Amino acid sequence: MESEITLQIILIKPTPEVVFGLQKGTGNYETVQKQSYTSQNLSFQFTVKVKGDKQKDAEPKFSGSFVQGPSGDKFVYIDIGIYAGQTNTKWARRLKIPLYGITWNQVDKINSNPKFILECHVPGTGKDGGPNCATVKPFDGWQLKQL
Question: Which pTM was predicted?
């Protein structure tokens, strides 16, 4: 069975004056939904394809133009600063948002009601005061949200 679900990343208080964007593709990628922090958290909404057999696979398998990584370790990148196409910054980072922990029950709920999405909240600023980067830690996971 294959379906599509909507995910939303909320970047909490990211570093000001830095561009953040969602990475689409690999290698010669494109950065979409570019945004900078003003007084609101940043929000990135996109769809992923869900594959697999819930009778055989413990967790759903994900693919699509925003999904990165090897099987069993899928994630989404937020491009930051230079990686997002910004030229007037010293920041060149990526933030890795894992797709693990999404359950078949969550996927079924979304597929049965299009008003549901999965959302995660991620700190936008790292311990060094610059944009948060590398794999998000701690990661509180993906939660169902009704629109």
Answer: 0.95
Cα–Cα dist 118/36, whole Å: 23
pLDDT per position in the chain (147 positions), as tens? 689 999 999 999 999 999 999 999 998 999 999 999 988 999 999 999 999 998 999 999 999 999 999 988 999 999 999 999 999 999 999 999 999 999 999 999 999 998 999 999 999 999 999 999 999 988 899 999 999
CA distances from 144 to 17, 26, 41, 90, 147 (A): 31, 28, 19, 36, 10
108's CB contacts (< 8 A; 6+ apart) are none
Domain count, the chain: 1
Print the domain residue range for 17.
3-146
Given a contact cutoff of 8 angstroms between Cβ atoms, the answer to whether 98 and 75 are in contact is yes
Query: Which DSSP string do the residues of 5-62 spell out, in sequence order?
Result: EEEEEEEESPPTT-EEEEEESSSS-EEEEEEE-SSS-EEEEEEEEEES-TTT-SS-EE
